Amino acid sequence: MATRNDHLVGLLLGAEEDWPTAFEALARRLGVLKAPGGGEHTVTTERLTIEPFNLRDKARQELVIDRLAHWYYHPREWLKKVALMDDVYLLNSPFTFQSMEKHSAYCALIRLGMHVPETVLVPYKHPVDNARWAYTSSRYNQSFDLDEVAEPLGYPLFMKPFDGGGWRGVSQIKDRADLHRSYDDSGEMLMHLQASVPDYEHFARSLTIGPETMVMKFRPDEPMHERYAVAHDFLSPEVGRETRTISQTVNAFFRWEFNSCEMLVKDGMVYPIDYANACPDVAVTSLHYYFPWAMKALLRWSTFCVVTGRVAKTQVDTGPWFEIADDEALDYQAKLEAYQALADDHFETERYAEFCDSTLAHVDDMVLEWIDGPDFRSLLQSTIQQTYPPHEWERFEGHFGGLLGMWVSDERRIRGSGAEG
Ligand SMILES: Nc1ncnc2c1ncn2[C@@H]1O[C@H](COP(=O)(O)OP(=O)(O)OP(=O)(O)O)[C@@H](O)[C@H]1O
Ligand SMILES: [Mg+2]
């Protein structure tokens, strides 16, 4: 009889209920999987709880999807322990996310030759809370003229924290008065000043899970439920490929697994502006039409990692990337191709595709059936009721129900069943 391996996937969650419930329901439906090399596998999920742990405790989970460690440090330290001691695979690893935030991501992409807008890091406005501050700053802090620093960046510019996320402390600076007001308000936050990309044609926001990337048309000025537009070919094939390569390069370089990347496109140039999101938005009320894709990618990639016993590395290996970056014989296009090859290598993209075609061949139909069924409808309804006030429930049920109905129809057409849902 074939051996049966059960793989436990842990979910470390904050306030979300929608996607974890979807993920759990889909994992239950995966059934018994036949691995390419023989053997039978099942995947079980479990929500992690927070409690004292002995450093010598053995982890039962093989993989953890983390949504909490970016602000809650007890589970973050548990994640580091289980990665170090038990090789638990993490989406995402705090080892690189804790030390490599937005600022490091800018630096790395600049060295890799990407078109990151001009960016300057300015010292803290307020004194740092440390007894040595007064002496250190009087001895070593250079006085500087903020206007002179901002001048070459031009107005409007953006001021934002070096480790930002969730629009915290981000402001668009229109002129000198704005600049001084915002800097004075920045207090103990460490701020970047960044040149803006004015009048861009497209805001492309991608979500990458393992080797799978979805590049979506984003409208940051709309309310949350309208931000992702359903648009399939809004970028030219070349620009589309470039946005995908940039997204996968960031993740493979930093060894992030589940991340979103924001890029502005103007005159055929792609400007990456934000790409270190340890906890990317996957709410059904944000992603709507793209939600089934995200759940599928999360399920397939997690399953691939546990069934094939993929081993994570906790540290970044910059060598091969910088070798390409520093090669003067390569132009930007050639570098992108070389980065994509490194990313494919890192994520085992080919092996993953084969795994999806063989072991996970039933997943497309399974997800389609679930999204088109009563359990998902009731999940969508309860999410809407938890998210919006009662007088908006009906409107949002129509809105999201319509978008997901459109996904079902498109998916049926793509999958060739011919039946419109
Ligand atoms: N250089 C820029 N040029 C044009 N727009 C920008 C630029 N930088 C930031 N923005 C705008 O400001 C928004 C917030 O900036 P950014 O994404 O860097 O901050 P954040 O705190 O990570 O926000 P979020 O978590 O919502 O992504 C962007 O979504 C974009 O609309
Ligand atoms: Mg952002």
Task: Show the helix and strand layout.
Layout: E1 4-12, H1 18-29, E2 33-34, E3 40-47, E4 63-66, H2 73-86, E5 89-91, H3 94-99, H4 102-111, E6 119-122, H5 133-140, H6 146-150, E7 157-161, E8 171-173, H7 176-186, E9 191-195, E10 202-209, E11 212-218, E12 228-229, H8 237-254, E13 258-266, E14 269-274, H9 284-287, H10 291-307, H11 319-325, H12 332-347, H13 349-358, H14 363-371, H15 374-387, H16 393-414
Parallel strand pairs: 1-3, 1-4, 4-5
Antiparallel strand pairs: 2-3, 6-9, 7-8, 7-9, 10-11, 10-13, 11-12, 13-14
Helix pairs in contact: 1-10, 8-12, 11-12, 15-16
Magnesium ion (MG) binds at residues 262, 274.
Question: Would you mind describing this structure in some detail?
Answer:
With 421 residues, the chain is α+β, with helices and mostly antiparallel strands. Among the domains are: 4-99, Rossmann fold (3-Layer(aba) Sandwich), CATH 3.40.50; 118-195, 2-Layer Sandwich (Dna Ligase, domain 1), CATH 3.30.1490.20; 370-414, no CATH class. It is built from 16 helices and 14 strands. The strands form three sheets. Strands 2-3-1-4-5 form a five-stranded mixed sheet, with helices on both faces. Strands 12-11-10-13-14 form a five-stranded antiparallel sheet. A four-stranded antiparallel sheet has the order 6-9-7-8, with helices on one face. A hairpin with a 2-residue loop joins strand 13 and strand 14. Helix 1 (18-29) crosses helix 10 (291-307) and helix 15 runs antiparallel to helix 16 (393-414). The longest helix is centred in the C-terminal third of the chain and has 22 residues, at 393-414. It is globular, with a radius of gyration of 23 Å. Adenosine-5'-triphosphate (ATP) is lined by residues 117, 158, 160, 164-168, 170, 194, 196-197, 220, 262, 264, 273-274.
